[in-house]
Every structure is written in C-alpha cells, then in structure tokens.
Amino acid sequence: MSESPLVKRVLAVVAVIPPGNVTSYGEVAKVAGCGARNVGTVLKRHGGGAAWWRVVRVDGASHDPARAAEFWDREAIAHANGRVKMHEHGIDARELQELME
Q1: What is the pLDDT of residues 13-55, one digit of tens each?
Q2: Residue 28 and residue 40 in contact, taking contact as beta carbons nearer than 8 Å
C-alpha cells in the first residue's frame, strides 16, 4: 500500500532535521501543513525508519525518553530528565523550510 501525501510530507520534513538538532511536533506540522497530533500519528504508524528521536514536544520531552536518550547521546544532544535542551538544539519551522529547499 502506498503512503498518503500527508505521510510523505511529514516524513520528508523529519528527514531534513540535521543530526544534533531537534524540533517539535508543532514545527514539523507547520511545514507539513497539518496538525501536531497528525505528526505524532504518522511517526507512530509509518516512522520506523525516521529519526523519531529528533521530534519532541515543545518542552523538549520525548514520548520514549529512555530510548531517545541513546540517540541523543550519539548525536551529542544535551538532555536531562527525559528532555532535550531546546534552546541549544531546537530548530523552528523557518529553518526546516529552508532545509527542505
């Protein structure tokens, strides 16, 4: 079964998040043209090969902080108590859009 246009858009945005950076579900949603919950659903259902650990809540928290921490450590993403330091590693929709071009 082929992926929907929404799935393709969300995964394309997630694919351009550089290693060592994170963004929020909402920022991905702005670029993909959907809601933040849609981004979470797409990643849950179709994002097995995507860098899901680079997409976090606006407060830097992950849905699976124990697993995400392994990836954050590999990419030198500063984190504590299951949350990344968004002010150090976060990128916004404008930056994501530039990376898409």
Answers
A1: 999 999 999 999 999 999 999 999 999 999 999 988 999 999 9
A2: no
Q: What is the model's pTM? A: 0.94
Tell me: the pLDDT tens digits for 59-80? 999 999 999 999 999 999 999 9
Judge whether 79 and 67 are in contact, CB under 8 Å: no
Query: Where in 12-78 does DSSP place strands (E)?
Result: 23-24, 55-56
Burial of 73 (0-12, 13-18, 19+ CB in 10 A): exposed
CA 91 to chain centre: 10
Domains of the chain: 5-99 (1.10.10.10)
Say if CB 28 and CB 13 are below 8 A apart.
Answer: yes
